[in-house]
Amino acid sequence: MTKLLAWSAAMLLVGGAHPAVASGNAAPGRPASIDAVDYVDDRRRVLWFDPELKKLQAQLYRALPGTVNFTTGWSQDDKRALVWSYSGADPGGYYLLDRATARMHPVINPYPEINPDSLAPVKYVRYQARDGLVIPAYLTLPRGREPKGLPLIIMPHGGPFARDNWEYDPTVQFFANRGYAVLQPQFRGSTGHGKNFVDRGYGEVGHRMQDDLDEAYIGWRNRARSISKRVCVVGGSYGGYAAMWAATRNPERYRCAASIAGVSDLQSMLRYDRKLFSATRYYRE
């Protein structure tokens, strides 16, 4: 069942119980109606209920294929819409859509110095953990390169009650530009993949959540069909803790670890989490 959590003139916040997809925002339309809802699975998506707007969304994807597109504003007569478009290999930009002509006009490029044609594509992949749980991940390879023989950076996200998304990440693109494959595992406990997936992370910091990173390496090795000893773990916040623990727990597997503002004092972190979050459920002795 979907529950209405909050309402404003600009947005409805909806909490859902879908077993494998993140909840999203609902866009209020005419009185007593909801025109659309957006949600996130492998990437952000928009589901329109209004038939005319559903056609509009199809126009957007024909005009800007391989991207995420959604409207951020409308003219008062509803004849023009401001559209934000981005992808894992495109920082994004604003376009003005003329509904009468179905033409898109670029209006704002926030990153004019970045050429999207030079960026590496980001793929959504899956691998299996040792207990059978399917772990989603984002894989970025250097542009024009095959996996075999590439050095690998495993990049766990922070949180751990968070997730990565199919969107431009300057750190990932920097590493790919320098010749590294980058794998971002959405280890158990990550949000956005359903309640059961989050629950599987409770009590597993340093344990099965860490195992999921090890299995990311094994999944990569199978995909690349080669055994590379050039593997590094890089992460920030919780990801920094996971990087340090990976190198400590399995020094034979990882050549290096880089911790960016990583957690090194778990007792202090627990005290902090107890005050502000429910993340203590992720920890156990």
Automatic annotation (TrEMBL):
Q: Which GO terms describe its biological process?
A: proteolysis
Question: Peptidase S9 prolyl oligopeptidase catalytic domain: from which residue to which, for each copy?
Answer: 166-282
Q: Which InterPro entries has this protein been placed in?
A: AB_hydrolase_fold, Peptidase_S9_cat
**What molecular function terms (GO) are annotated for this protein?**
serine-type endopeptidase activity
Extract the Pfam families matched here.
Peptidase_S9
The UniProt keywords, alphabetically, are: Hydrolase, Signal
Span of the signal peptide: 1-22
Q: What name does this protein carry?
A: Prolyl oligopeptidase family protein
